[in-house]
Every structure is written in C-alpha cells, then in structure tokens.
Amino acid sequence: MLGELTPEQINAVLFNEVVGRIGCSDEGRTYIVPITYVFDGDAVYGHSAEGLKIRIMRANPTVCFQVDQRENLANWRSVLGWGVYEELQGKAALEGLQLLVARLMPLTLTETLRLPDGPPAAAGTPVPDSPKTIIYRIPLMERTGRFEKR
C-alpha cells in the first residue's frame, strides 16, 4: 500500500533519523548533499565547513530537505520539507551546536570509539588548523511525507 504520512508521522521520521539531504540550487544548477542533522520540532539544524553547499545556500537560501527510513524496498517512509537557510551566530549558534552534540554524540560512542580522557577544552577554544564550523538551521515551513508498506 502507498500512502501519505500524517503530520505526526512526518515529525516522527524527522525526529528519529540523523542523516538527511539538502537540495539547493544556484544559477540553474542543483546540488544535493547528505548531512547529519537534528530536528527540534520546527527546524533542521546542521553544521558544515565553508564549501560549495554553504556558498550556494548563502546565494539562494531557499532549500529543500529530504529524509527517509527504509526497512527494505517495499517498506519505507520519506519526508520532504521546504525552508530557508539561516546561518547562526553567537548564542543561537551555540544553542544549535548543543542540540547537534546532544543528539549525535551518543551515536558516535561505541566500544571501539571513545572520547579522549581528560578535561574538555574550554568553550570557544579553537582547535589548531581546523576549519571554522558553520552552524545553521532550516525552519521547515512546509512538509510532506509518503510511505509504502507491504
């Protein structure tokens, strides 16, 4: 059976997943790229270094966001959302980063991957030779979702 997801099901997909895709375009060229993200009920938060994705979204901030859940080829859910890219600064960037860390860090810690021992670096302490991290959000003003279930 094919069908449409309810608003509650759409939000469940957005809350439960951590990898989605941003679709953006500039000068007639479309660019689609996977990102790790967190959803707060209204907006998708992401992070990136400077690059093509950021340059395109700065030039044309209207974007599409897509995420899916797949059990197999006959059992899946897919959500599309549309919004406007917002680059965060100051307190808003810190809050966005905290959302990302709280959601993504537990997923990266395993038996073989652990954080180094010792005190954490002071907030705002730059990591030598690391690119500047850009924190952004995309408020999803419109959302739709589809599913197939057999």
What is the structure about, briefly put?
With 150 residues, the chain is α+β, with helices and mostly antiparallel strands. The chain is 25% helix and 43% strand. The chain has a single domain (2-107, 130-148), classed as Electron Transport, Fmn-binding Protein, Chain A (Pnp Oxidase, Chain A).
Order of H and E elements? EHEEEEHEEEHE
Q: What structural class do helix, strand and pairing data support?
A: alpha+beta
Q: Do you know the CATH architecture?
A: Roll
Calculate the mean pLDDT score and round it.
88
Distance between the termini: 6 Å
Number of helices: 3
CATH superfamily: Electron Transport, Fmn-binding Protein, Chain A
- Radius of gyration over C-alpha positions, nearest whole angstrom: 17 Å
Give the quaternary arrangement of the chains. Answer: single chain
- Kindly identify the CATH topology: Pnp Oxidase, Chain A
Strand count, sense and barrel status of the largest sheet are:
9 strands, antiparallel
Report the helical percentage.
10-25%
What would the principal axes of the Cα set say about the shape? Answer: globular
Q: State the name of the first-level CATH class.
A: Mainly Beta
* Total number of strands: 9
Give the low-confidence spans. Answer: 112-116, 118-129
Strand content: 35-45%
Total domain units: 1
